[in-house]
Design brief:
- The complex is a heterodimer of chains A (about 625) and B (about 150).
- Chain A is about 50% helix and about 20% strand.
- Chain A has about 625 residues and is of the alpha+beta class.
- Chain A has four domains: about 170 residues, GAF domain (Beta-Lactamase); about 120 residues, GAF domain (Beta-Lactamase, 2-Layer Sandwich); about 100 residues; about 150 residues, Histidine kinase-like ATPase, C-terminal domain (Heat Shock Protein 90).
- In chain A, helix 1 runs parallel beside helix 5, helix 5 packs parallel to helix 9 and helix 9 packs antiparallel against helix 10.
- Chain B is of the alpha/beta class.
- The chains are: A alpha+beta (about 625), B alpha/beta (about 150).
């Protein structure tokens, strides 16, 4: 009675202790150790183990196996015909009192450490609700070491233990997940601080190895079109075997499959995977592998490859973590790529701008030189002309003084000589002087024209709102005499205002109108019209005449300095349209014409209607 | 009239032909004053300050300077600048006689203190007229007596 009571109290204490351990202890190994200690205080435990069953893989693992007080590591086994599998399949406690009784179900295996065979075997299912998670088992070399009562007790303890194991496993999972997510966060954060893709990848694989505890990590580039896979960066012993830059045959191995599928591939045991490919079987002892594709906008740009020399080194959590990281990778790589593209574009733009600036500087310098040249040439050319003209004038004056003396001297000469000297003094010398004079005058005209053209290039342009109609009216007044002389009419339509330099505009319109009047056809009454209109941001004016017209082959000639088209019966330097074009160019405008010889010409000038950028200088 | 007779004229002109034409026309304009001709700006300054080749020669006073702009060694602007910044010469009237009528150059000369700016026209008639009018001008203005 006393003994029964003590046994009952002992059982009750055991249950209470196991219950409190399962509530307090969140570490699986520690919990199982305590369970073993507590259980062995009541049960004979020549052998004790806790088996955990992975239903998805139908594998049985042994987190704790104690044989005659010694811990042994046991490889996982698939669900089979053994006694443990029997308990798992039926989810019932199994009590065996002897080898013979056991043999009816399954042959008892030899024990791991001692290599003996137990007589008594008691296993209780670890069950949470209706889900079986494993088996707790005690064995003894003695037959009938356990009673039905022992069976009930172990079943009760198993129920408590199952809850504790589940708690511990959940806790482990949660804390591992939290830790991994912290690492993912850190990696992601660090990734965004790198804008150089190679540096970024190097940092990333190192972080993944160091912070997530993998031994071999590689990033491989995948070329979408060719399927070519090349090692970009890597850490761990594998890098010595598969150095950066090595190419993996397209589609080969686990990487090939992940690339094809576009999704992660987790291989717990490479020998069982038909795709696994090992180029260095002698030195590379990979047991498990995890390959996660890195995508940028739904196309694969690379893969993260993790390999381990241990079986089942990776699980679904690893896959999840790596998938998250791969997404971050994709984003970071794309950002880095965009950044680099942008940098290149900015660089290209900057170079282009520099080039343009240089051209502008060169052009400005060249322009300046031309202006200077034109100025100096005209200036320096003038000095000798002053002498030519001056001394020919002096000669003429000398001749005038000389002529009475010559006349007197002629009296003394014979007829032939008289004629000769008279011709020299009265014809040849004055004629020579005349030619010198007229040539110098023409030369001076050219020089003045060049000087004027060069000045137009330097003239300060001050845009202001202009009443173009009144400008044309004033020009009409200056031309009134010529118009009347040629029996010509000038009609002016209503003209839009312009924003331009007043003097320049007067020069332009003055030249165009003077040309229109000068080149009228004397065969018919002259009609000249001036019109204009505003069109999207521009304002145009035209001068239309029914004059002699310009032949198509003279199109460029009329704008060239010193060139005049057609019959040379009108006096002029041939500079008018050169000035007009030079001025319009300065104002950012243009001039064009349409003409039909013998019918007439219409010149159209176009300038921006708003105040543009400063055209001065 | 008595004062004009005493005015000396310094022609600073690198073009011998121009100098000759100026002189001829001044003479035609009945200017009989003493005329000195130098061919560059340095000589002009030497003459004005009795230095170099003109060391020891006292500068005639009153004096009028006919100055060309484009010259070797020292150009007309430099001569004008020196003259107008030196109290000894700043009251001497300067007539700039040059080939260009560029508005900026004309303005620059007046800024520097020239009294009259005359463009040498290629048209000889106008040239003669300009020089002879200069003679007339000289006959009616009073040229200050140096310092």
């Amino acid at each position: 009675m006393q003994e029964t009571k003590t046994a009952y109290a002992k059982q009750r204490d055991l249950i209470r202790r196991v219950a409190s351990a399962t509530a307090a202890i969140l570490d699986l190994d520690e919990l199982l150790e305590i369970a073993y200690r507590e259980i062995s205080s009541i049960f004979q435990t020549d052998t004790f183990f806790v088996a955990l069953y992975d239903a998805s893989r139908r594998m049985i693992e042994f987190p704790l196996m104690i044989d005659e007080g010694q811990c042994s590591a046991v490889e996982p086994v698939p669900l089979g015909e053994g006694l443990t599998s029997h308990v798992i399949t039926r989810s019932e406690t199994l009590l065996l009192r002897s080898k013979e009784e056991a043999a009816e179900i399954a042959e008892l295996p030899k024990l791991y450490g001692s290599m003996k065979i137990s007589e008594s075997w008691l296993g209780a299912p670890l069950v949470i609700g209706d889900r079986l998670i494993g088996v707790v088992n005690v064995q003894s070399y003695r037959p009938a070491a356990y009673s039905e009562e022992h069976g009930l007790l172990l079943t009760t303890i198993a129920d408590l233990l199952a809850v504790g194991i589940e708690h511990a496993r959940l806790h482990e999972q949660v804390s591992r997940r939290a830790e991994q997510m912290a690492v993912v966060n850190e990696v992601a954060r660090r990734l965004t601080s790198h804008l150089d893709p190679d540096e970024l990848l190097q940092t990333a694989v190192r972080l993944i190895r160091d912070r997530l505890g993998y031994t071999q990590v590689m990033y491989l580039d995948v070329q979408a079109e060719t399927g070519r896979v090349t090692v970009r960066v890597g850490v761990g012993p594998i890098v010595e075997l598969v150095p950066v830059g090595s190419e993996i045959p397209a589609g080969a191995g686990v990487i090939g499959r992940a690339t094809r599928l576009g999704e992660p591939v987790l291989v717990r045991h490479v020998e069982e995977d038909p795709d696994y490919y090992n180029p260095y079987p002698d030195v590379l002892h990979t047991q498990s592998e995890l390959v996660v594709p890195v995508m940028i906008t739904r196309s694969i740009v690379g893969v993260l490859d993790l390999q381990s020399n241990e079986l089942s080194a990776f699980d679904d959590t690893d896959r999840l973590v790596l998938e998250t990281l791969a997404d971050q990778f994709g984003i970071a790589l794309e950002t880095a790529r965009l950044y680099h593209t942008m940098q290149r574009e900015l660089e290209a733009r900057r170079e282009a701008e520099e080039r343009v600036t240089r051209y502008i500087e060169e052009l400005t310098a060249a322009n300046e030189e031309i202006k200077q040249f034109a100025y100096i040439v005209s200036h320096d050319l003038r000095a000798p002309l002053v002498n030519l003209k001056g001394f020919s004038g002096e000669l003429r004056a000398a001749m005038a003084e000389l002529s009475p003396h010559i006349a007197r001297s002629l009296e003394a000469l014979g007829d032939a000589e008289k004629r000769e000297v008279s011709a020299l003094a009265n014809v040849d010398i004055p004629e020579a002087l005349e030619f010198i004079d007229s040539s110098v005058t023409r030369m001076d005209g050219f020089i003045n024209a060049v000087l004027k053209l060069s000045r137009l290039g330097r003239q300060q342009l001050t845009p202001e709102a202009l009443d173009v109609e009144s400008i044309v009216e004033r020009i009409r007044n200056t031309l009134a005499h010529q118009l009347a002389e040629k029996n010509a009419t000038l009609s002016v339509q209503s003209l839009p205002t312009a924003v331009a330099d007043r003097t320049a505009m007067e020069q332009i319109l003055g030249n165009l109108l003077a040309n229109a009047v000068n080149y009228l056809d004397p065969q018919r009454a002259g009609r000249i019209e001036v019109g204009g209109r505003s069109t999207n941001g521009n304002v145009s004016y035209w001068v239309k005449d029914n004059g002699r017209g310009i032949a198509e082959e003279d199109r460029e000639k009329v704008f060239a300095p010193f060139r005049r088209a057609g019959k040379q019966d009108v006096t002029g330097e041939g500079m008018g349209l050169s000035y007009v074009r030079a001025l319009l160019k300065r104002m950012g405008g243009r001039i064009d014409f349409e003409s039909q010889p013998g019918v007439g010409t219409i010149f159209t000038l176009t300038i921006a209607s708003t105040r543009g950028k400063d055209e001065a200088k | 009239m008595s004062s004009t007779r005493s005015v000396s004229i310094l022609i600073v002109e690198d073009d011998e032909g121009h100098a000759r034409l100026i002189e001829k026309n001044l003479r035609r304009g009945k200017i009989s004053n003493g005329i000195t001709h130098v061919t560059d700006g340095q000589q002009a300054l030497d003459f004005l300050y009795s230095e170099g080749t003109f060391a020891g020669c006292e500068r005639p006073s009153p004096l009028l300077v006919l100055l060309d702009l484009n010259m070797p060694v020292l150009d007309g602007y430099q001569v004008l600048e020196r003259m107008k910044s030196d109290p000894r010469t700043k009251h001497i009237p300067v007539v700039v006689l040059t080939t260009t009528d560029d508005a900026r150059e004309v303005a620059r000369c007046y800024d520097l203190g020239c009294s009259v700016y005359i463009t040498k026209p290629v048209d000889y008639g106008s040239f003669c007229e300009a020089i002879q009018q200069l003679g007339l001008f000289m006959s009616i203005v009073t040229v200050p007596n140096g310092e």
